[in-house]
Design goal:
Elements lengths: L2 H7 L14 H11 L11 E6 L2 H10 L5 H4 L2 E8 L6 H10 L8 H12 L2 H25 L3 E5 L4 H7 L6 E10 L16 H4 L6
Antiparallel strand pairs: 1-2, 2-4, 3-4
Length: 206
């Protein structure tokens, strides 16, 4: 699909067709496109818990303000932001060296720079959430290109989600994403107005 059409047709779908499922093979195809998104140092500091089973959906729904789309969506993603992701810089640095981005002697300097930027409580959390958000948007756009609908969900209780799914302390729940197919018997309302260029861009500072 033309990229402009993907952007225009992607909507936050509130009503999912419970009779249509997104199989794992299709999710993998979507992921293989979405994984091309950028991330700081290319560390890709995120994990996704894939929730499709009825019992786990029930647990997630209870932690997500009992929103119906948790039940209705074919799959739910719990997008986790890894606050210690920068510790994995060695693995990506090997790739950097093999592809000519860096020389081996720069390894310790790159590791030190990553730690300097992110190794504090605010930096770690900000690092993780910024990067995870990039992956989320990429996945939603890729999904739409494959004809799959999504809805991001901020309405959840972080502690309840982490407890229900035994999520390690290093991870923040960035958001939930409902994944499936729009229930065409329920019409989407018109898209809300978007701010114009001059409402968003500030020339040369405030």
């Amino acid at each position: 699909m033309e990229f402009k059409k993907v952007l225009e047709q992607r909507r936050s779908v509130n009503f999912f067709d419970t009779d249509r499922k997104v199989d794992e093979a299709l999710l993998k195809k979507i992921y293989d496109v979405a994984k091309l998104c950028p991330s700081s140092f290319d560390l890709q500091p995120w994990k996704i818990i894939l929730v499709t089973g009825a019992e786990n959906k029930k647990k997630l729904k209870e932690a997500a303000l009992n929103q119906p789309k948790v039940d209705e969506a074919s799959a739910m993603f719990i997008l986790l932001a890894d606050t210690r992701g920068f510790e994995e810089v060695d693995a990506i640095f090997d790739d950097m060296v093999s592809k000519g981005y860096q020389k081996e002697e720069a390894r310790e300097g790159v590791k030190g720079f990553a730690r300097m930027l992110y190794d504090n409580s605010f930096g770690c959390r900000g690092f993780a959430l910024r990067n995870a958000s990039l992956s989320a948007m990429s996945f939603m756009l890729a999904a739409k290109d494959f004809g799959v609908d999504t809805h991001t969900m901020d309405g959840f209780e972080q502690d309840k989600v982490k407890k229900a799914f035994n999520i390690p302390e290093r991870y923040e729940v960035a958001m939930l994403i409902a994944v499936g197919y729009h229930d065409k018997t329920k019409a989407l309302l018109p898209r809300l107005n978007r701010k114009e260029f001059n409402e968003v861009f500030v020339r040369e500072g405030f």
